[in-house]
Design goal:
The protein is α/β, with parallel strands linked by helices. It contains 14 helices and 17 strands. The two termini are 38 Å apart. The structure holds 6-O-phosphono-beta-D-glucopyranose (BG6).
């Protein structure tokens, strides 16, 4: 019989959401339309929101409640998992409001507070509030400071209601700015009220990585340097930068995808079993992994980091222009759209095991996966010729698309000889469960509503990951040499293949 932790908190499905108003700063932005309100509407139709709820959009542009409602209906028709019927929309829309204001003007926050008090009374919300910062990141510090100055949030918890703040990515652009933002945030809020979003943590399959590891007895005994030869984590996208040249020129793929999403996946793959699934127990383990990342020795970056930039090419029949020709890109830019890393986690479990990470735009297809490549059997019992087609065992966790898990092992080819061929044992979400997985934002909004920080990143975690990433940026800033070209629609520069060849490995072709 498995031992249970008697102090385990109730699962989400066992908990009741409390009445609350969610204020979205940056309500005229894309995220509100594409993700936030559609996710909230889906939660509403699944009866996962409380009956007393309100959603207030806040942005600079003047708009009436009705205009905001109409815009959001259109967005939900397009993007929500559950499309609104007129009847369902009529009920949901009663809880939608809009408030125009300036992010840096105290009067806007007092007007917001007055409005929220009226909405509290009208909707029976009892003063509980979540503030969602979905503005450009340059507005985060001022918005947080103004929220604090207006008394809308504070460091001391209120006994009668809760106040929480969700902060969108990016959380800083390097170690220094992330530390400064943490200081700004923690000057006004207690860490327990801060919810830093990384939408990869809301993905079903990322959560399933924890379930696979810690709800099964089979895998964990093998999950270490004794059995695992190396690990590959891929976050490939087939799209280019899609008109986001201005942003991407500042960010690059290392900031855009690796510092947050891929490092979170890495941390969950490599962490020790937490003592419980409580937010801090879980995040303590992730922080330990990030702190154990071996810094790349000075002067040896080329042995550990390969960066690339896409040239024109064809991706699944679609023409992709050269990165240099994208709108908003400065001619001669050395900004990376591809990065491959070789990492070591200097702890007891992973000593000596290379973790290869790659992330890129303009790849042949979209795929995110974690693959553990196992060591060979200690002895070749079946002779050289039988084993010539044999490949190492691989456990591949497919995060998206075709969500699932596959295990590759050697099997005897039917016949009178002893030939061995690799075969796959597959689990697919679609086949096993049939239903569509929820959107990451649904899960994350709901968790924040419940006050569960487990799937949100903590301040020290973000800083630990920036610490490693910022060293790479500093080395790159010293020289723009070494940005390799790759044709859009290929798997990246040849130098990235050599990163693995040198160790006797090769990238998977997922
Ligand atoms: C975002 C990045 O955080 O994640 C985008 O800014 C990227 O550049 C996106 O395309 C990928 O998310 P997903 O969920 O489509 O894998």
């Amino acid at each position: 019989m498995a031992t249970e932790n008697p102090l385990r908190e109730g699962l989400i499905s066992e908990r009741q959401p409390e009445p609350c108003t969610l204020v979205i700063f940056g309500a005229s932005g894309d995220l509100t339309k594409r993700k936030l309100v559609p996710a909230l509407f889906t939660l509403f139709t699944e009866k996962l929101l409380p009956e007393s709820f309100a959603i207030v959009g806040f942005a600079r542009k003047a708009m009436t409640d009705d205009a905001f409602r109409a815009e959001m209906k259109e967005a939900c028709l397009k993007f929500a998992r559950h499309k609104p019927t007129d009847a369902a929309w009529a009920v949901f829309a009663k809880g939608l409001f809009y408030q125009a204001g300036e992010y840096d003007t105290p009067a806007s926050y007092s007007a917001l507070e007055e409005r929220l008090v009226r909405i509290d009374a009208e909707r029976g919300v009892k003063g509980n509030r979540i503030f969602y910062l979905s503005t450009p990141p340059s507005n985060f510090p001022i918005t947080i400071a103004q929220l604090g100055a207006a008394g809308l949030v504070g460091r001391v918890p209120r006994p009668e209601c809760f106040r929480r703040v969700i902060i969108e990515k990016p959380f800083g652009t390097d170690l220094g700015t992330a530390q400064q933002l943490n200081r700004d945030v923690l000057a006004v809020l207690d860490e327990k009220s801060v919810y830093r979003i990384d939408h990869y943590l809301g993905k079903e399959t990322v959560q399933n990585l924890m379930v696979l590891r810690f709800a099964n007895g089979l895998f964990e005994p093998l999950w270490n340097s004794r059995y695992v030869e190396h690990v590959q984590i891929t976050g490939a996208e087939s799209i280019g930068i899609e008109g986001r040249g201005g942003y991407f020129e500042q960010a690059g793929i290392l900031r855009d995808m690796v510092q947050n999403h891929l490092f979170q996946v890495l941390a969950i793959t490599a962490m020790e079993p937490p003592v419980s699934m409580n937010a801090d127990d879980l995040r303590d383990e992730k922080v330990k992994v990030l702190k154990a990342l071996r810094p790349i020795p000075d002067g040896r970056f080329d042995e550990f980091v390969i960066r690339g930039q896409y040239r024109a090419g064809t991706i699944a029949g679609r023409r992709q222009v050269d990165y240099q020709e994208e709108t908003g890109v400065t001619k001669g830019s050395a900004r990376e759209t591809y990065v491959a890393l070789k990492l070591f986690i200097d702890n007891w479990r992973w000593a000596g095991v290379p973790f290869y990470l790659r992330s890129a735009k303009a790849m042949p297809k979209k795929v995110t996966e974690v693959a553990l490549v196992f060591r060979e059997a200690p002895l070749r019992l079946f002779g050289k010729s039988a084993s010539q087609n044999q490949l190492p065992n691989v456990l591949a966790i497919r995060i998206q698309p075709d969500e699932g898990v596959s295990l590759r092992f050697g099997a005897k080819v039917p016949g009178n000889t002893m030939d061995i061929q690799p075969v796959n044992m597959e689990f697919r979400y679609g086949t096993s469960f049939g239903n569509e997985p929820p959107e990451a934002y649904e899960r994350l909004l709901l968790d924040c509503w419940h006050g569960d920080q487990a799937l949100f990143t903590r301040g020290d975690e973000v800083e630990a990951s920036w610490k490693w990433i910022s060293r790479v940026h500093r080395a790159w800033e010293a020289s723009s040499a070494g940005v390799h070209s790759y044709e859009a629609g290929t798997w990246g520069p040849a130098e990235a293949d050599r990163l693995l060849f040198r160790d006797g490995h090769q990238w998977r072709r997922p």
